[in-house]
Amino acid sequence: MATTTAALPARATRTRTFRPIWAWYALLVALMVWGLAAWIDELHYGLAATGMRDVVSWGMYIFTFAFFIGLSAGGLIMASSAEVFGIKALKPLSRLGVLSAAACVAVAALMIIPDLGQPFRVENIFIHPNWTSPLIWDILIITIYFIFSVVDLYVLQRHATEPSRWKSIVRVMAYVGLPTAILLHSVTAWIFGLQIARSWWNTSLMAPLFVVSAVLSGTALVTLLALCAEHFGKVELAEDTRKWLRGFIVISLFIDLFFVGADYITVLWGNVPADRAALNLVLPGGSWAQLFWIEWIVGGLIPLALLLIPRLRKMPGSLGLASILVIVGVYAFRIELVVLGFINPLTQFPPGNAVGTYNPATSSFQLVGRYHPTWIEIGIVLGLVGLFAALVTFGYQKLHVMEPLEGRKHRKTVSTRTSGS
Amino acid sequence: MAKFSRRSFLGGSAAVAGGLVVADHLRFFAQSTGELTSSDEFLTGKEVVYRTGHSNNCDGACGHLVHVTDGRVTMIGPAEWGTTTIAGEQAPTFHPRICLRGLSQISNTYSPDRIKYPYKRVGERGSGKWQRITWDEATSLIATKFTEIQEKYGKTAVWVAPYTGSLALIEGVIGAGFRFASVIGASAGDSEGDNEGDSATPAGWNYVLVDPTNPANAGGFFTGHESVDFMSAKTIVFWANNVAETSLPDWRIMCDARDENGTRLISVDPRFTVTAAQSDEFVPIRPGADTALIDGIMHQIFANGTYDTDYIRANTVGPYLINPTNGKWLLANEVIAGAKDDYVVFDESDNKVKAASDPSVKTPAVMGTHKAGNFQARTALQALADMTAKYTPEYTEKLTDVPASQVVSLGQVWGASKPLAVRVGFGLSHWYHGDLHMQALLTLQAITGNIGVHGGGVTTFAGGMAATFAPFDLFDFWAPKGTKIYTLLEPMNFCDAVEKDDPFPVRAAWFPIDNFAQQMSDRNRIRAAMEKLEFVVVSDYSLTATADLADVILPACTYFEKTDLLSSNNFYLQYMPKIIDPLFESKSDLDAIRMIAEKMGYGEYFTETPEEFLKQIMRIGQPDADPSVQGLTWERLTTEAVRLNTDPMPYVPFFNQQYPTKSGKIEFYVEMLLPFDQELCDHKEPIEASPTNPLYSKYPLVFLSTHTKFRTHSQFVNLPWLKEINNGGDGFLEINPRDASPRGIADGDVVRIFNDRGEMKVRARLTESMKPGVVNCYQGGWDTIRVKHYIEGHPNNLTHQIAKPAQALIPNFPSNAAYYDVLVQVETSGA
Amino acid sequence: MAAKKDDYVPHHVMVIDTNRCIGCWSCAIACKQINNEPLGYFWNRVLTTAPNQSSTAKAPASDNLDVPWGTYPNCELAYLPVACQQCNDAPCVKVCPVQATFRRDDGTVLIDYNRCIGCRYCMAACPYGVRIFNWGDSQYAPGGVVGYGKEYWTGDRLVFTPERPKGVVEKCTFCVERIDVGEKPYCVVACPMGARIFGDLNDPDSEVNELVNIGGGEQLHPELGTDPNVYYLPVAKRVPGES
Questions:
Q1: Residue C57: how many CB atoms within 10 A of its CB?
Q2: CA torsion B328→B331→B336→B338, rounded to 10°?
Q3: What pLDDT, on the 0 to 100 scale, is given for residue B336?
Q4: What are B303-316's pLDDT values in tens digits?
Q5: What's the pLDDT tens digit per position in B442-456?
């Protein structure tokens, strides 16, 4: 294949190069169509089409919402920290981080819509807001955050082409972005953490825990996206960048596990039955123990090993694998948080809480809640995940967020991409 | 770069716009998910409220306020009671009452299970294959077949068996079915509705309080204290009576007595029921050992000397001397010169033996052995004391499993706490020796002076036949002029009649409001006998197990759909107006009877309307009406629940201490039971459910099938609103963990319960409410072709029909199904 | 009752006597009837507990109803009917994003069926588990609409409707349509034990006033500070052998 720019007609090359990307988009569109179809189904049948019922009344939409908020906040924290703390090695990833943050928070906000029983009344939120409700605070902060991240992305894009003119603005944005991102996930944490009815949630640790798991998962996500860019987009990550990413992940993973472990110890030692009720389900031997293993081993010890043990660290793909596992672990934590908060209600006596739908083959009551998502929920969530992927891919392609800041070879041309290395 | 940004921004906007368009299209889906609009299904019509009585098989006899809009029942609530008697006296306070079953009557009436049309069987009996026919066809067929069978086998070969499915006057267990039977000369079943397990304790009651040979006593009767009378009791003992679950509304009165008057509540039961939980004391008795416990308590009474001498002397046969050679009453003309046929007493005032009615008698001795003529004769009370001498606390504990210390304290309470009321359930009658248990209770209450006094007595529900029968001229209703009363064939004798023509052949049967083939004991035997019938008619509103076996099914009305009257044990007459038109093609039993009678040539006896019948039966406006309804006008009857005239008020039977026995006294020494070795209430072991039974080694568990609050016998069983609270409607076996774990049974396991008569399968429910050695499976669940509440079989597969000969002494209570006197074994079923 | 000023607002309170509640579920069925509730919905449930046990400090004896604590014959059994506690400081009112759930002056906590967006945050916030969500198509009583049968508005809020749309939350309303015309909630009317008493706490002569202030009425989970308007009279200690 010829290597000069002029030799090949751009269009033809584009077609050949873009084929895999079309397949990718086709997959994402298929997911989004599935998601939309699932939502239409859900509108028709009502939320009975999901696995939620009166005992476990929040499920996949809410824990995936919290998950995506975390991913979003983490991305922006990482990107802002690079600027605020002057971490040069991470600055190349700033725009990717902010793109990811914007896409995540948009998807997170959309994730709430299918969870609403009456989604077409959502304007009531703006007509009759209740200022004592953490949900209203969260909608407020999400809106502010989304606008901020879109503006920040614009600023960073302008900065990439005109660094000196935009430098101070970038700085200001980072100083605003860092606390905003922390606030975003703290407020989301407070949706749960302030509830006196659920002792599994009602801890002051909730906001710090959410923030740290946001840093963990958000950084891992940006790492993963960067590695994808490296693999598919023929960009190269500096070793320093990798080191910093590893460091962010390792430290935040340690803190995250420390927080979770501290919570376990507090509950175990106190041995108050209402508090123990949820923890017993999660600990080995309980019916939800798989979450424990996923959080601590799959998303905990194994990534730590991959990132700390020199031999493993040097393995190609170890950083990518660790990132994936960490993300899985944080998702397991979100499931554990939301679902287990509901399973043992505070007022728990036979026959239990009413279920809210009638099926002659099963009881109309549950003493201990049960939940597993249905294909409707999975479809809608995957559809929104597809949307996220599409937004990031599209943004990546059109905004060239991985371009280096120095050396104004700002457009990696098609031909360079197709040439050899 | 900027261009692209703008383009992507525009593209984004387009996407958003497109999304809004799609969202708008989706808005119509939102409409279907229920934007609030006024539905024309909401209740907008005029509402009419009726008052009626709840006549389903329950002596609570609650009054219902029924709300009807546009011809449909929309709400049921508890109704107020009239505050004065018919004669104008102030009645005791009586609260409105209702329970979850009465409240469910809307879903019962409009249930999709409702039988809509008449049907004729077209397959094998019990195959469930039906052909819809018209009422004309059905009644013609019935008339023809009945006539045929009567001609071939005799008039009594047709057995009409109305039962307690309805307690109302015209269409219930004292109703028009019996009139029909008399008119066509057929045989008929049990009109008191207590022959299936509810006649042992009434028989015992009659032994002691009623002379069954006196025609004035009409073959025996059964009555009790009005519920509100319990407010006067200092202590109430619930003997085998889970009032808080089975006579729900009356439990309020017990709670009021407890909370307002400090009345002490004691529960005697092998199960720790909700009644036991709310009582001050729980007596955990071995099932069937009741008489032993009573004897143990009486032992204490004698030991403490706390028997009521004055009362015994005045009102019981206690002082009468017994002939030591034959155990019969010593007759005055045997030992006193010139005396007539009379009882003999020993007068302590002058140490002379006298005839009981001798006017010079001052203080007859109640205890002791006295020389009378050549005899050393004991008083009846002495005989009782001697009999109970062996029932020391330790011996009583051995027989009853009640701790000796508790026997002692019960004896103290019973002797010191007056008045003491006993409320006894029919659970006590579900035993072979139920008559003996009642006899014992009456004996104990007699020697402690608790009979015929406010706050005392031995009562099963309340009022009993005093309210149910007395106000009505039933015999004229049942056997109108020109006819002879039907021939009585008790349910317990049904199988012999069918299988052996004993006492006469029965080849056809009509079951209106009677789920005979499921609720009668020894179900396998019953079903075999039903197979032999040539023609079976069932009138019901739901497809019961009995309806499954019918040749013709007639769709019956519910209590909303016909006029009737409910008289009840709480002494109120409740007029039941027709509130809605009969649903589908259902007809009242009276209408069905009329159609058939007409076709059989007896139409003249059924020309009256229900209102006319009611006026006739109660003799409204006539001078010879029963005193309890004297002065009643139709106007008053149809405008409020009117309280009967009773004396005293609250009603207490035998308040005047006049007893319809041979002696005129309480006969705790029952001479007529001498041939049965039961003249005194010496404990006898249950006929089957006893550790002394050799069968016990094979079947070591006592099998109870008690009543549950979630249904009334076999009614309300299949209503989703009740099923979803009650384990999805599935039956279960209550078993103590100490019986379950050696058998490897965990909570929820399927178990097989079996004995030599049959078997059933359900899931086990481990509970500490059961005494170890005793298991319980709530009765009433369905085992029909379409609906099965037990995984397999039915509790009545395990019960029997062993009749006690002594009961034959009481014509109205000659036999009894001892449902609880049953042994079984339980094992895991693996299925 | 003495004539009250037009602007007088009562403080509605319910007292439940667990000393005589026998767990018959009549109140639960009555509630379903007056409110035309579908199957699977219970605004009002009757829980099986040990006497005076308001927290799960002792694990239930069984998953099933009516199973006593203890070992035969030393058993304990009691019942706790639980519906919306109509809290004065309700967590659900605090978290509802659109103020669809609100507390009325008389102490009742009500839901505006027209405004609820179905986010179910209130269900997550309620410590008593008394809120029901309309997940999908429901099965009502056979035969048609039963009970009150009409919509009921308080102010401009729709607080009761006989057939609820999918996707909104609902719960006990203290039978708002009845108490506003001087009647009692239907569970109070239906209870065969007379175990439910309803009235105005502000009225010094009312039975509820006496039971709350003197009679030992206790709240459920008082440590949470929700200050419910439903009080429970305790089960009396039963000592055998004393008369």
A1: 10
A2: -160
A3: 87
A4: 999 999 999 999 99
A5: 999 999 999 999 999
Q: Compute the average pLDDT of residues A245-253.
A: 94
* Closest alpha carbon to C24 in A405, A340, B60: B60
Q: Are B468 and B174 within 8 A, CB to CB? A: yes
Over residues B688-711, the mean pLDDT reads 96
Under DSSP, the state recorded for C185 is P
Residue B683: name the closest of B262, B396, B306, B412 by CA: B396
Does C15 score more than 90 pLDDT?
A: yes
**Residue A105 to residue A99: CA distance in whole angstroms:** 10
Tokens of A297: 């081993």
Q: Which of residues 190-209 of C touch B (CB under 8 A)?
A: 190, 192-194
| Portion of chain A with pLDDT greater than 90, in percent | 75
* A364–C38 CB contact, under 8 Å: no
Contact of A40 with chain B, judged by CB distance below 8 Å, is answered with yes
Confidence label for B44 from pLDDT (cuts 50, 70 and 90): confident
Of C40, C117, C225, which is closest to A357 when you measure between CB atoms?
A: C40
Chain C CB within 8 Å of residue A277 CB: yes
Q: What's residue B21's pLDDT? A: 46
Hey, is B345 helix, strand or coil? strand
pTM of the model: 0.91
Residues 6+ apart with CB under 8 A from C184: C175, C178, C198
B765-823 pLDDT, tens digit each: 999 999 999 999 999 999 999 899 999 999 999 999 899 999 999 998 998 999 999 99
Q: Is residue C62 part of a domain?
A: no
Bridge partners of B758? Answer: B755
> SS3 string of B586-612?
CECHHHHHHHHHHHHCCHHHHCCCHHH
The three-class DSSP label of residue B241 is: coil
Whether C240 is covered by a domain: the verdict is: no
Between chains, do C124 and A365 touch, taking CB under 8 Å as contact?
no
Using CA atoms, how far residue B588 sits from A103, B106, B512, B556, B664, in Å, is 72, 18, 10, 6, 44
- CB distance A363–B8 less than 8 Å? no
CA distance A420 to B519: 89
Structural domain containing residue C208: 12-54+74-233
- Is the N-terminal amide bond of C73 cis, ω within 30° of 0? yes
Neighbours of chain C (3+ CB pairs under 8 A): A, B
In a domain? residue C242: no
From first CA to last CA, the distance across chain B in angstroms is 72
What is the token pair recorded at B588? Answer: 């009242």
Look up the CATH superfamily of A25-354+365-403.
Formate dehydrogenase/DMSO reductase domain (1.20.1630.10)
Alpha-carbon Rg for chain A, nearest whole angstrom, is 23
Contact present, B441 and B640 (Cβ < 8 Å): no
C56 and A277 in contact (C-beta within 8 Å)?
Answer: yes
Residue extents of the structural domains in chain A: 25-354+365-403
Q: Taking 60 as the threshold, does the pLDDT of residue B8 lie above it?
A: no
Give this complex's ipTM.
0.94
* Tokens (6 digits) for C176: 């708002």
B-chain CB neighbours of A40 within 8 Å are 26, 29
* Strands (DSSP E) found in A95-221: none
Looking at the predicted structure, is the pLDDT value of residue B355 above 50? yes
Q: What share of chain B is helix, strand, coil (3-state, %, to 5)?
A: 35, 20, 45
Amino acid, res. B475? F
Tell me how far apart the alpha carbons of residues A415 and B168 are, in angstroms, rounded to a whole number. Answer: 97
- Is C26 part of a structural domain of the chain? yes
**Is the CB of residue A110 less than 8 Å away from at least one CB of chain B?**
no
Query: Per the structure, how many domains does chain C have?
Result: 1
pLDDT at position B1 over 70? no
Token representation of residue B730: 């599935």
The predicted pLDDT at position B521 comes to: 86
User: The domain that contains C123 carries what CATH number?
Assistant: 3.30.70.20
